[in-house]
Amino acid sequence: MKMMNNGYNSSFNSNSVGLMSNTGATTASSSSSTSTTNANSQSQGLKTYFKTPEGRYKLHYEKTHPPGFLPFSHGKSVSQVTLAQLKDKPAQAGPTPSSSSSTSASSGVRFAAAKFLGVGGGNGVRAIGFAGGNGTGKAVNGTSRSGSLAGSNGSHSILNPNYDGKGTYLIFNVGDTIFIGDLNSPDKDPIKSLHFSNSNPVCHAFDPEAKDGHDLLIGLNSGDVYSVSLRQQLQDVGKKLVGAQHYNKEGSVNNSRCTSIAWIPKSEGAFVVAHADGNLYVYEKSKDASVDTSFPVIKDQTQFSVAHARSSKSNPIARWHICQGSINNVAFSTDGVYLATVGRDGYLRVFDYLKEQLICGGKSYYGALLCCTWSGDGKYILTGGEDDLVTVWSMEDRKVVAWGEGHNSWVSGVAFDSYWSSPTSDDTEENVVYRFGSVGQDTQLLLWDLSMDEIVVPLRRCPPGGSPTFSTGSQSAHWDSVAPLGTLQPAPCIRDVPKLSPVVAHRVHTEPLSGLLFTQESILTACREGHVKIWMRPSSETQSSNSEALVGSSTLAGTRVGSSTLK
Amino acid sequence: MGATGSKLEKALGDQFPEGERYFGLENFGNTCYCNSVLQALYFCVPFREQLLDYYSNNKSIGDAEENLLTCLADLFTQISSQKKKTGVIAPKRFVQRLKKQNEIFRSYMHQDAHEFLNFLLNELVDILEKEAHATKSDAESSSPSEKISNGPKTGQANGAQKEPLVTWVHKNFQGLLTNETRCLRCETVTARDETFLDLSLDIEQNSSITSCLKNFSSTETLNAEDKFFCDKCCSLQEAQKRMKIKKPPHILVIHLKRFKYIEQLGRNKKLLYRVVFPLELKLSNTMEDADSEYSLFAVVVHVGSGPNHGHYVSLVKSHNHWLFFDDENVEMIDESVVQTFFGSAQEYSSNTDHGYILFYESIGTGNKS
Fold it and tell me: How far is CA B38 from its chain centroid?
């Protein structure tokens, strides 16, 4: 239902998130968008491009499982996608913050250069720009690596054991298998498959900053969790996980389905696993996974509670009981301070992770929430769910500030585009425009522009029996106050929330979609059945002029607007 | 059967209240359309309670002749008064009565569950109205404010002669639509109200119930061959028409138009479309101030790839647990299993189990009933 994009962003940091104004597509109109209504005819062919105000996005590559693969040996599961960027093999010296930062920046350049050479000079202007900025000559290595992989035609038996694996990889689950594809290869087939014999892998996450090699997390339908080194998997020729740490073996701690898994930013190898029974567990990969923990019985299923492991040796180290019913998705803010969860009960909850306290949250319009994500600056959270709405939550106001109307079915993936910058820039910090995207079970990708300046707050409706005018001019009650700390807000009334309309609506797949993510060059969309499409951004002057500035300091999973808060 | 029964009983454990009964219904040859709807109605708690109330209040009044209402009440009483928690019951009298009453249902052909539900509800309303009229002519001096007819003992027909009677069936299922037509010449809006017991929605591939409801209420332009006769202009004019829900029902029954007449084929075709339905729903296109919220409590599922054959089963929510009813078989299922009845995103699929009639009950604050 969602994707994790921390791996990619860390190396392609952008400090340019929409500090610019825009013509704006925010309206308070409650009428449904006409641009999105007719996209559902099955016979209608899918276009290989879509137009946006900044230009055309073109279908570049597609990735999928090998033909003939029968994905349903343990029943169906929804495909999700994680992007993983492997750098050079870790240096012998222990990575200090400064060296790690420069490593990631240079590998970012190298990756980009390799990409453009691989495309065949189609993006000449930008490739030259990168070559100038890079100057290390290592780009050639990258290219030949990806070339040789493509030449091997996805056959695992001839993978080079000394292969260092650097590059950007697409990790996606289909049925009982995890597939790994090379993002920069035109090859549709994956280069590696990992088979799970007991249960389906259903969620995964990658940490590009992982210290001891274990950077990939995989959560299973059975509740089991693995951490592995992605590089080690790529180097191995087999179809089984190698060198894996196994947590919650056979569901010994919790046997309900894993629903979402995430590394905790800036935590030195801690991660959380959310389950279908409303519990979330905190693990530390340095601790022995074989020592299992038992936690006290949850006294009140309706109340949030945190229990810590009694022994300091055991793993998981803590259990958070968050809600009744499934937790469907979790997301950490870029700085790792806040954890957002969404679930079956329709509530978004935002916790102060270290203090283990509920900060704020609120109910969907109706139905379960399926996905959530943070803006790079931590000011906004997007959620999507079964009310067909994309909801924009403000951390400052601790409530819903806008509803995006445009999907014709449930919203299964949301993400901010931290690489996008408004074409009409005026560089004022006061007028920030955010670009974000959403995908839904209506098979559509929608792009949205959010400018808080242009949000039209609905007027308070006249009280019953009062004069039927809107002349009082006061805002509706929803807007009168900031929600108190530590409380969950009820669902707002439909008339009280400003509506957004999408800038673009495009039907990208024939199957319901499960996730999207943004990279510097492209938008990735994935459908539930395990097909991934890579849409190249329009090549415009605005972007190439920005791109050098993008290669710089590194933050995890997104960006901050304005001043950087690197530690 | 005994094995299944005890298995279910074990699964039920002590999570269900003492009084609740879960009984499968025997199939008398293609009567699954009937069984699936009956289960949904049985677990429509306000409907069941009011039917049983009505029945117990009316029993004393002599042995009225048998009709579909008494047969249904008999059946529900029979289920609810079983000693065991689970088992199988043969709805024999009800099915016999149904076949006697309506020749459509007499054959052993496959029947449409929605047609049956519609027929049954209208039949119940007719019976109640007739009885109310009979009592009204007996005793004219009743309180005019009481609008519910909960049997001759408690309820009375209302005083106003013209206003239609509001029976307890209406109170549960009836909503009010308003059909607004705006003449594009004189801008006059003509509104016509109509009642409904269920909403039949056109469906699209990979859409949601929310989206289907939105389309149902979307503005349609009447022009060319299809102009509107405006009373003010006294001529045919172009106009804009839209349906709004004026008063949402307490029980919202949504029928998905999965069986569509295809002109090229000269017959009905089943649309296998994937149409997702949330477990909670709000009607935002109402004219009431607050958005009324609903919770899904039953789904009648059509199984099969064509319209003229196949099978019906139902999913029912009882005391926060979901159960699967397939004629005489009853099983507990996880809430997540409901998702497997959405339909298929592809034209041809092995998955042919599709949600066909959805039953939502109002839980919202906006509902004033």
Answer: 10
